[in-house]
Design a protein that fits this description.
By secondary structure, the chain is mainly α. It has 16 helices and no strands. The protein has two domains: about 170 residues, no CATH class; about 130 residues, no CATH class. Helix 3 crosses helix 4, helix 3 packs across helix 5 and helix 9 packs antiparallel against helix 10. It holds the Pfam family DUF6361.
């Protein structure tokens, strides 16, 4: 099968991932406690390119460029661009607070104190979808503006000013940001659909954005009611992603069980022992699908697509999958599995290992990285809903 992975500029992708880690630090169920994020993100970028775990609503794909196009129109210089853009983005927060739909509003609580602005959250997505044409990071964009203005003023320049924004980008409503809402106009929804179809046509995102019922209320993309209609390459990729998600989930449960035993916390020990038993039953119910899983092909897809998987990460994943899937699966709670998880946590956290550091253990809230991998389906579903609702609106 030809890989359908889509890869981002590494420096910007790495920056985004590091910031996502910071933003998710207190979201205990979704944290990457055992260092499998490179594999998780490889699948997520293949299915839903341009998305991130902390994106919330589709219309931010317009709010951000509208703020920056206004800066360009006003010829705001490079050394003032960051501050002026921040003022514009904060103004959108207060405008949206007046609307009747504040779900997914970034800065709803922090307001002007918000540290991670929407421009930072959506910049890479704007580039991947071809809304933003500037080839660098947000900081590089700020620094480039003075040169951009100079080139724009020289009609005979050998190097004319390349546009920073796609020519078809809809204009901001009159008075922006006053009276804005998260509701996409039909034209805006059509524009986003067209951008996705043009820029990432082989992705699951592209298939769904052009399908009725795309935003189905299911927990995982492989449970989508349209899954049998997905293109065969995506079905195959989803099968690998599902197998990985379900098999690796037990490692998170075992890790939390070990923490509960060490704390000690009898109620949590009982909770995670029960979850591990249910996980075993889930694996048994999948039967041949997991027993016959071609893990060699799995790694060929991941590594061949350019994912930077360290040897230590691959050894941990291979070790866990072997314990969980080979034989009767009971080895995944035994001594070898516990040693594997403990060694991995210590290698990642060093002096902050919860299994060794009492203070770190005390700060554990009872659930560390226990959520099953959905490869960004959760936030993507909301964005799809916004787009599909916009497409259904009357002009």
């Amino acid at each position: 099968m030809q890989s359908t992975f889509t890869w981002l500029d590494y420096s910007e992708q790495h920056r985004r991932q590091m910031l996502d880690v910071i933003d998710l630090f207190r979201e205990q169920e979704t944290r990457d406690e055992l260092g499998i994020g490179t594999v998780r993100d490889a699948f997520a970028d293949a299915f839903f390119p341009g998305t991130s775990t902390i994106q919330t609503r589709a219309r931010y794909f317009f709010f951000v460029p509208w703020v920056y196009r206004d800066l360009e129109h006003r010829r705001v210089p490079s050394d003032k661009a960051r501050d002026r853009a921040r003022k514009g983005e904060v103004a959108t927060i207060f405008a949206l607070l007046k609307s009747n739909d504040t779900s997914g509003l970034l800065g709803k609580q922090a307001k002007e104190a918000l540290q991670r602005l929407p421009s930072s959250v959506y910049w890479q997505g704007l580039r991947v979808w071809g809304v933003c044409l500037f080839p660098g990071s947000l900081d590089q964009y700020h620094r480039s503006l003075d040169g951009y203005y100079r080139r724009a003023d020289r009609a005979d320049a050998e190097l004319p000013a390349a546009p920073n924004w796609h020519a078809g980008l809809p204009g901001a409503p009159e008075g922006f940001p006053e009276n804005i809402t998260f509701r996409l106009t039909p034209g805006e929804a059509q524009y986003l659909r067209d951008r996705v179809l043009a820029r990432v046509p082989k992705s699951l995102l592209a298939f769904l954005v052009d399908s009725d019922g795309a935003e189905a209320e299911v927990d995982f993309p492989w449970a989508h009611p349209l899954s049998k209609e997905f293109p065969p390459p995506l079905q195959e990729l989803l099968a690998h992603a599902r197998n990985f998600s379900e098999a690796i989930h037990g490692a998170a449960y075992l890790y939390n069980l070990m923490l509960a035993e060490k704390k000690p916390a009898d109620d949590l020990v009982e909770k995670y022992a029960k979850l591990l038993n249910e996980w075993h039953e889930q694996l048994e119910a999948r039967g041949a699908a997991l027993r016959d899983w071609d893990r060699t092909q799995f790694w060929q897809l991941v590594v061949g697509a350019g994912a930077r998987v360290s040897p230590q990460t691959r050894m941990f994943i291979d070790g866990w999958l072997g314990l969980a899937l080979d034989g009767d699966g009971k080895k995944s709670t035994g001594g070898a599995a516990r040693q594997l998880v403990a060694t991995r946590e210590r290698a990642l956290k060093r002096g902050l290992s919860r299994l060794d550091n009492q203070r770190a253990l005390e700060l554990w809230n009872g659930a560390a990285g226990t959520g099953a991998l959905d490869f960004r389906w959760g936030p993507t579903r909301v964005i799809l809903r916004d787009i599909r609702q916009g497409l259904c609106e009357e002009e």
